Amino acid sequence: MKQIIINGTNTISGEIAISGAKNSVVALIPAAILSDSLVKITNVPKLSDCDSLEQILLDLNCDVIRNKDTFVISTMNMQNKFISNELSQKLRASYYFMGSLLAKYNHVEIGMPGGCDFGTRPIDLHLKGFEQLGAKVTVLDDRIILDAPQLNGTTINLEKVSVGATINLLLAATKANGITTINNAACEPEIDNVIDFLNNMGAKISGKGTSTLQITGVKKLGTSQIAVIPDRIETGTYMILATLLGDLKITNTNPIYVKSICDILKQMGVNIEYSANEIIVHKSFNNKPINIETNPYPGFPTDLGQIIAVLMTQINGQSTLTENIYNGRTKYLVHLSNMGADINLKDNVTTINGPTKLIGTTVEATDLRAGAAFLVAGAIAEGSTTINKADLILRGYENIVEKLDKIGINIIIQDELDKNLTPESVKKKKL
Ligand code: EPZ
């Protein structure tokens, strides 16, 4: 495992270019296999999740040409087969292969999905939707099996707004007989990216950007090209960092995707300027306390909750963060308290009193976004902070060490010290 060591600083400056969105590309790659031909995906971020999905494509005998930020994928020689747990558990988004393989072959055998550990992460909405489309769902200890001699369009009313279920059912419905309507669909921009990719392939999907999607099944899907949209969570992460240490110009992004974050920061008194694809955030003092609730898009994203909690520790007064998506997304609070934050958690409401000085220490990335939060905390803390299990951070932030170093943050990444290494064991090794 890797560890990141980051030293607190007083200021940053310069600019950061945003990469392609992790939560978009991890759906686009599984969607690619729906094509009966060749597809091209550009602006692909260099993330370990993309490596894991490439492994699954190769395991399915797809031909993949990957160079720099581009994937070219051909399904001419593709074969359907069991996707092992070794491959499927590397990330949550492996489960998108359920929807695309079901649509393409009417049969899927896949190991369990992985993903960040913040409490239970059920996939009942996905499986119920597949059943409504006509699939027989069998869940065994080590795999999920879906069988559907024929998928038939239907109306699916999602009980909860779910990004994953919306995308998975979209994929499954592209070649179903007739029309499928998904009500209470999620509206994240990443879903629009997938819809554009599929419609370029010849799919017939309407309702983009709304909570009602309509898919008219088609027989064939051909070539397609798509650019991965900018990562709105990466953008928000650097906006929050800049509020604390700015000024920072964030380029290659889309301010529309981060409207909820802009609104919140402006409410706090932060000075933000933006153009079509750039955002400038100025270091901001005397910010006002704030009460934030996380919600599905276009609400404030759960993925930025832990990161804005760090900003709350520096605000004079009492702020609250109400987490409405994942109740288990609180493991990071212990580490933040150990750094000196004044935090109280009751049910799904985190109350933070500030300002408190944060002191560098050793912490552990309990999930991807907690790791990012500790980077922001370490950047403003007194002294040095070591973040263990930093591989988690690299799953969602392309070149984050290089990007932070370039704007003036003192940061290194290295292998975690082998816990078995002790002076005695070293001595023995020498002998
Ligand atoms: C996606 O996860 C993102 N991951 C998450 O980002 C993000 O936090 C989440 O959407 C919410 O925006 C990817 O896109 C790969 P959901 P997903 O289905 O699709 C419940 C990150 O850090 N639910 O929208 O798994 C679920 O428990 C990651 O980048 C069910 O009950 O999330 C949650 O409470 C973390 N049954 C809520 O719905 C289901 O079948 C929303 O989950 C599915 C979900």
Textual characterization of the structure:
This protein is of the alpha+beta class and 431 residues long. It has two domains: 216 residues, Enolpyruvate transferase domain (UDP-n-acetylglucosamine1-carboxyvinyl-transferase, Chain), CATH 3.65.10.10; 206 residues, Alpha-beta prism (UDP-n-acetylglucosamine1-carboxyvinyl-transferase, Chain). The chain has a four-stranded mixed beta sheet, covered by helices on one side. A four-stranded mixed beta sheet has the order 2-14-16-15. β21, α12 and β22 form a beta-alpha-beta unit. α6 runs parallel beside α7. The longest helix has 14 residues. The radius of gyration is 22 Å and the shape is globular. The protein starts with a strand and ends with a helix. 49% of the residues are buried. The model has no long low-confidence stretch (mean pLDDT 95).
Q: How are the elements arranged and paired?
A:
Layout: E1 2-7, E2 15-17, H1 22-31, E3 38-42, H2 48-59, E4 63-67, E5 70-74, H3 85-88, H4 96-105, E6 107-110, H5 124-132, E7 136-139, E8 144-147, E9 155-157, H6 163-173, E10 179-183, H7 189-201, E11 204-206, E12 212-216, E13 224-227, H8 232-245, E14 248-251, H9 259-268, E15 272-274, E16 279-281, E17 291-293, H10 305-312, E18 317-322, H11 332-338, E19 342-346, E20 349-354, E21 362-364, H12 368-380, E22 384-388, H13 391-394, H14 400-406, E23 410-415, H15 423-430
Parallel strand pairs: 2-14, 3-13, 9-10, 17-18, 21-22
Antiparallel strand pairs: 1-22, 1-23, 3-5, 4-5, 6-8, 7-8, 10-12, 11-12, 14-16, 15-16, 18-20, 19-20
The protein binds ligand EPZ.
Briefly, what is this?
By secondary structure, this protein is an alpha+beta fold. It contains 15 helices and 23 strands. The chain is globular.
